[in-house]
Amino acid sequence: MTRLRRLLIANRGEIAVRIIRAARALGITPLAVYAPTDATAPHVALAAEAWPLPADPPAESYLHIERLIDIARTAGADAVHPGYGFLAENPAFAKACTAAGLLFVGPSEEVLARCGDKVAAREAIAAAGVPVLPGTGAVDDAEAPSAAEPLGFPLLIKAVGGGGGKGIHLVEAAGQLPAALRLARGEAVAAFGDPRLYLEKWLDTPRHVEVQILADGRGAVIHLGERECSVQRRHQKVIEETPSPAVTPELRARLGAAAVAAARAVGYVNAGTIEFLLQEDRFYCIEVNARLQVEHPVTEMVTGWDLVAAQLGIAAGRPPELRQDAVARRGHAVECRIGAEDPHHGFVPSIGVIEAVREPGGPGVRIDSGLTPGLAVSRHYDSLLAKVIAWGEDRDGALDRMAAALDEMVIAGVRTTLPFLRWAIEDQGFRSGAYDVRFAERWDHRAVDPDALLRAVVAAALWTHEARRRPAAAVTGPAAAVVESEWRRAARRESVGEPEGSPGRRPDAAKGRR
Amino acid sequence: MTYLVCGPGGNLQVELTELTRGRYRVRIAPEGQRGKEYHVGWSAAFARSYWNLEWGGRRLMIVVEREVEDLGITIGADHLDLRVDPVRRPGRHEGEARLSRGTVEVRAPMPGLIVAVEVAPGEAISEGMTVAVIEAMKMQMELRAPVGGIVRHLRVVAGQEVAAGDVIAVLGAGGEGAGGP
Fold first, then answer.
1. Chain B neighbors of A59, CB-CB under 8 A
2. Does A190 touch chain B (CB under 8 A)?
3. Residue A477, exposed/middle/buried by CB under 10 A (0-12, 13-18, 19+)?
4. Is the complex ipTM more than 0.95?
5. What are the pLDDT digits (tens) for A169-188?
6. Using CB atoms, which residue from B3, B46, B136 is nearest to A410?
7. Is the full-model pTM beyond 0.90?
């Protein structure tokens, strides 16, 4: 048993803010790290101390194990929370933390390695009697075509070391396999530093349903119910809700039991998620996510649990009492992920500087956000900017609150997925609850409001008319010019390998000490 | 003042008369027709890109952003890329000279890192072939040739950072069209 006093958060953005809040509520001092571009980010401002990292690329900042361990030691941390993404599921990081005498807030190195090898994890889970999807082991380019044959097309390419939707590609026909393998391998290396890929059978219209589990490392494993994550773009979840409109109490009990069995099969400890595909009332386990999930707040909203606090308790050997019959769920919760992507131009990443933000509030509305004016949205990191979570007594109540909250939310400076989210929350197909993983494709075929077209034409004329009266600089768009020069500066810095800021190890004590 | 607004649904002429500061009489007409008249309000709403349009007693928040060549207008979930030109003499529009004939540019759809260039200058390529691969936010995207043709110019190399709208390659009409005007 350890008393946690100082917690280093090896992450950025909204999840770093989320963890800082849990730490403060528990009387633990939160310590942040930041890349140069994040110097003014909320997680830096909210932490008790913030320690600089020398450069923006993840390999030199939030993925740099030695540097992070060094900072943790120098800062006097006794534990490290990895958040999600970056090093969250990296066994080498967990090992390095342990070796340095730091508690790693998550499963052990061994469990991470077991879950991180998606192929091995699937075999262990199948052996425990939990249904899994047919798939291959790790394949190279040469053996992929023959390995694909028994699965048939379409199929999915997935990264053995993957997660979070990165490196996943749908292959419709055998002829597309080589090109898709190349893209997937490139992404897998960039995102996970592991080029291994495997193939998995593709179900046409399943629902993606996952189960939150908690394991205390002393034999107790419970589940906190499911999350429905079928609204996805590019295999990345965009909207999540709980309960799932497709899950009856009977199915919830079966899914929960399967999730607990899967967790036991891999020897899981701490908070984790077991992902399933659900078709009618048959489900198949696809993987174990050995981390806190992006979408964990919807579970928190209906159960009242603080999952980060539970993680910290389990890591420190002071776990909360885990009793399945003590888990009570109330009402309905939904989460929308706001990403820096342009939904009107193929969801291409939108890079720039946050000019202004207005975040919603009100009863049942929660914002987990990494946004602040002046923050650069860099190409180096994930596009997730903020999450809006809404709770209601029932599904309609939660969705109505979400619709109002999304209308309130304004982000200027980069394009965001807000228009897509507003459409989805009001769409009849989503509202009915009868949707599957293909739902988001309907965005590309939606009807456009003819009134909106007329108003857009008038707005374009008015904007141009008034722009002609403004000084010349304004006409060309000052925001665009700023972004452009920031971008070029960053590009120049990288191309000459010139580090920005000093790689010193002094905490930026002036920032946000409170 | 009259503007010609060109969008996917065709061209419309918009005649603006400012009545008081921020209040306009607007006449919207397909080219050469009389069209309909509306009274609207226009004011800044939030930051530099959000505007309020008052129309029929309702206030709508509208986002106006510059696209590579057009104006991007977003209202709720709806979005249009529009091109606006002042009309100096009614009925005449001279905005179509921007595409040099016979060549097509492949541009970067987003800022990012060119991770691979798959074609060489002078190479004949077919429609849909990958010209280059760009990466941003851990996503890789293939930039494909919109038409077949000869690679006239290659403006990037692997490892180079590009901004949105940067020209990646210039394709010339292939085969029968080669060496055109």
1. none
2. yes
3. middle
4. no
5. 999 999 999 999 999 998 88
6. B46
7. no
